[in-house]
Design brief:
By secondary structure, the chain is of the alpha/beta class. It has a domain of 208 residues: Rossmann fold. The protein is 37% helix and 8% strand. It contains 11 helices and 5 strands. Strands 2-1-3-4-5 form a 5-stranded parallel sheet, with helices on both faces. Helix 10 links the parallel strand 4 and strand 5. The protein is globular.
């Protein structure tokens, strides 16, 4: 992948933006920097917002419970792109597709019993994320779908059912497999509706649907049973099922919905993260607990967000480049 500076220089030479975008410091007596040339709205769930301590510090004071962190990929890109794009980041932990599209959400902060209690919980509702999209918005990124699928609940159920398994069998698959096709159908239906709403709100915007990274490796023998830094009590057989029948189909459903919109494209994070799963030594996604024994519940760390930032940056620059 070309470096950010190289890509931005190429974009700037084509659009007349390079002089403003690439000057690292303002010379004494020079005119103030011009306003950003493009408006970008970042929508999504915890995989966009950051949420966990391993993805940085919550930077918004007072907290609204959405837990956007300073190492999440929208904030990384915002720093990388300088004054080229004006970011509005309304991503929110635990958001469903409906919360992005039309429903006010009550954020949960870091209130995750029995793992953690948040002293500021409960938080007031936040507006539907789509309301941040305006007719003049140029780029929309959206990373959502896992909570509509109910992945957090599935994960917790798998932990519970696997607790007495000794790492043998597929107790979670046996209990939940019949419910997954219906959940995936709802993801597809809700995603189609969301894309239509976003297009109506910003008819000229490019919509970038950001997929989910690799969480579970193809070789689940890497995953140690009862390791809290990996998947704790989930047996290997259930991990194979979760990868093949739950998480990979989720990405495919998102990509398929994106293909129905001319103004939308899919940003694939899955392939680039194949060797950086929860069970890999160079992990970009934390396990149930992070290395400091803080709740992470299978979310990207700062390195995972840095990888996402590289891919989303490339997609944004391609979206705004002159034809």
């Amino acid at each position: 992948m070309a470096s950010f500076r190289t890509r931005l220089a190429l974009l700037g030479s084509a659009s007349g933006l390079a002089a403003g975008a690439l000057v690292p410091v303002q010379l004494a007596g020079a005119q103030p920097a011009a306003a950003a040339s493009y408006d970008w709205v970042a929508l999504g769930d915890s995989y966009t917002a950051g949420v966990i301590p391993a993805a940085g510090d919550v930077f918004e004071i007072p907290r609204d419970g959405c837990e956007r962190t300073d190492q999440s990929y929208p904030q990384v890109i915002d720093r990388d792109l300088g004054g080229l794009i004006e970011l509005t980041n309304v991503s929110c932990g635990a958001a469903t597709i409906e919360d992005v599209t039309f429903r006010a959400q009550q954020p949960i902060g870091r209130h995750l019993p029995p793992f953690s209690e948040d002293p500021d919980y409960p938080f007031p509702p936040v507006p539907p994320q789509s309301e941040a999209v305006k007719p003049g918005t140029d780029v929309i990124t959206v990373g959502v779908g896992g909570n509509t699928l109910g992945f957090a609940d599935i994960l917790l159920k798998c932990l519970e059912l696997g607790g007495g398994s000794g790492g043998v069998g597929t107790p979670c698959k046996d209990d939940l497999a019949a419910s997954i096709p219906g959940k995936l159908t709802k993801v597809s239906r809700d995603y189609d509706q969301m894309l239509a709403v976003l297009h109506d709100r910003a008819p000229h915007a490019k919509i970038l649907a950001v997929g989910y990274p690799t969480v579970i490796p193809k070789d689940t023998s890497k995953c140690r049973y009862n390791d809290p830094h990996q998947f704790l009590s989930i047996p290997q057989g259930d991990l194979d099922w979760l990868r093949q029948d739950v998480l990979e189909p989720l990405n495919k459903a998102i990509e398929k919905s994106t293909g129905t919109q001319d103004a939308a494209s899919f940003v694939n994070l899955y392939d680039s993260t194949q060797n950086h799963s929860v069970c890999d030594s160079g992990k970009w996604v934390e396990g149930i607990l992070d290395h400091d024994y803080q709740p992470a519940l299978v979310h990207p760390n700062a390195r995972g967000h840095r990888n996402a930032a590289d891919h989303v940056t490339s997609a944004i620059l391609n979206a705004i480049a002159p034809n």
